[in-house]
Amino acid sequence: MKLQISCQLDYEAYSSTPLILMLRPRSNAGQWIIKEEYVLEPSVPITEYTDIYGNLCQRILSPVGKFTVFTSSIVQTADFIDVAPGAEFVLIEDLPAEELIYLLPSRYCESDKMGNLAFQIVGNAYPGYDQVELIRRWIHNNIRYQYGFSTVSTSAQDTAFAKIGVCRDFSHLGIALCRSLSIPARMVVGYLHELYPMDLHAWFEAFVGGRWYTFDATQPYPKGNRVVLAYGRDAADVALATQFGNIFLLGMQVNVSVAEEVNA
């Protein structure tokens, strides 16, 4: 399916402020960028680099006053995500070196403290994909999705205790539980078609059977038509906007819809 995605950030800055943004998707095996637009109002210089996780990052020095960032893309997405019941656990010694970082505890994913819960959830399941799916299902069935309870400092351990949160919290918990079983897991942020209420979304991926697979504990079944913006260890690595000064976000608008036919 071709999706039209857009995100608008409206700021007010009381001093010229450095910003790092992650708002540009990049083409990969699961998505192809057909057309994109990136508008700054007022216009200011912008530079781009690729971070250590492969994400496209934009550097901006905001002007003083009102400032708007608008991005829009038409993306060819996969209608279904791959599933692989029975895909095997990858031995640590056989993991690609670049995936080892996703085994370690991180700021919001205290995997070194969650082993007991993880083993309770997976029981005698076959190591690998089947364990991750049991974790995803347990989170979906046992953690209540609700805005306004968690904060930017809520961790996986906090969510496991409170049993309430939003997509970011669901993802952190899934990641921490997977890592406690020595399964590499990473956070993903992006867009999901027909998400309600519409917003930017977060889910997680686990490395089993020699590749990454998508898991989304907010959804009752595997769902495609996703657009990835960024990957990282947890939310600290995938912030869509990081600011270094006296600037305030006035509002954010996110839209995802089926794209009209375009001339490539």
UniProtKB/TrEMBL annotation:
<dbReference type="InterPro" id="IPR002931">
    <property type="entry name" value="Transglutaminase-like"/>
</dbReference>
<protein>
    <submittedName>
        <fullName>Transglutaminase family protein</fullName>
    </submittedName>
</protein>
<feature type="domain" description="Transglutaminase-like">
    <location>
        <begin position="159"/>
        <end position="219"/>
    </location>
</feature>
<dbReference type="InterPro" id="IPR038765">
    <property type="entry name" value="Papain-like_cys_pep_sf"/>
</dbReference>
<dbReference type="Pfam" id="PF01841">
    <property type="entry name" value="Transglut_core"/>
</dbReference>
